Amino acid sequence: AAYMGYFGSDDRAEHVIRSLHEEGIELVKCKQLIGENGYSCVSIAEDGDRIWGDYNQGGIRGESRYVLDRFDVEYLRQFDIVHSGNYCYTERQLHKIHEAGIPLSFDFSDDSTWEYYQEVAPNVTYAFFSASGLSVDETHDRLRKVHELGPKWVSATRGVEGCYAFDGERFYRQESKPVARMRDAMGAGDSFLTAFLVRSADARKRGASEEEAYKAGLAYAAEFASDVCCAQDGGVTVSGTREWRGTPTGIPSHGDSKVWVACKSAPTGISSPYLTNVLATWRPVSPVRGAACVIW
Known about the structure:
By secondary structure, the chain is an alpha/beta fold. Helices cover about 30% and strands about 20% of the residues. It has 8 helices and 16 strands. Strand 8 (about 125-130), helix 6 and strand 9 (about 155) form a beta-alpha-beta unit.
């Protein structure tokens, strides 16, 4: 797994870089620029859900856009999937990945406008968005419309209601898995889409049909996201608010492939928000082999 992007020159950036090195993530295509690293402040409510606070618009990453050249594109060819999202400031470069025939996953989150979908989706292979604010009928309609823009797979997560998806021929429904003890919902959606991509890619390599691969990916992703919500620990309590410290880990590793997801979190010292837009790592709870991805 690898990360491509810009780091700032402050303590937050050094923490992210050090954490990624400790986890063995390849950073050869990254650059460190003078300026503030991206961060978001996030508090955790009593029910484990997130309360979003201050956000610095990606810091130096939002000011200096990453431009892909021919050598970057050649580097990307070694990976099974490239992942980006609507807070990554990569929109103008996505066509290069698409034209190179490299599968591209993209997270539209819950706040992308329809004009944004029309701009970005034609370059995307696997599209993901949050539909918690939509009805089921509205979710189905959005899935169809986004698919018509170009992606081969479109997935909509609906919180505790699970996931709905569409591949152009059939709709898929994946119920959420029970969470024994909700500790922290941070990264549940990111871990869901990452686990889906890795497991479905692995299934195809083993000879599964597209439908079989999608179903295997959805089932595994639901289980994995549930585990993430109840497995994270390491917060500190400050005036009744639990905030994240460090890079979330804790799920045993099996197999050859690690699952890496982009996570907006707020690892903190007690006095200041620390680190966000970090690559947090959660490992699969059962063997997943032969799938590699780069997050950009």
